Amino acid sequence: MGWYILTGVLCLAAGVALGFFIARKYMMDYLKKNPPINEQMLKMMMMQMGMKPSQKKINQMMSAMNKQMK
User: Fold this and answer.
1) Are residues 2 and 28 in the same domain?
2) CB 58 within 8 A of CB 46
3) Same domain, 22 and 5
4) Burial 2-30 (b: 16+ CB within 10 A, else e)
5) pLDDT for 70
């Protein structure tokens, strides 16, 4: 009787751990393919803050954000 309970608990723990790592991997891949902020969104944010965005400044900010993501 005790073996059934122990087996069930171990299977449950293994399933939770496996599910966590699969979900984590999926989200990392999703964020790499679909970054939360792209150049056009960054340009709009800068314009809303009253800044005139140059392509050089946008590229600098995007590279800084990409470094931070890694």
Assistant:
1) yes
2) yes
3) yes
4) eeeeeeeeeeeeeeeeeeeeeeeeeeeee
5) 67
- Angle among Cα 40, 43, 45 to the nearest 5 degrees reads 110
* CB-CB contact of 25 with 2 (8 Å): no
Q: Cα–Cα–Cα angle for 22, 70, 21, nearest 5°? A: 10
State the pTM of this model: 0.54
Range of the domain at 1: 1-34
| Each residue's pLDDT tens digit, 10-57 | 999 999 999 999 999 999 999 888 878 888 888 998 899 998 889 999
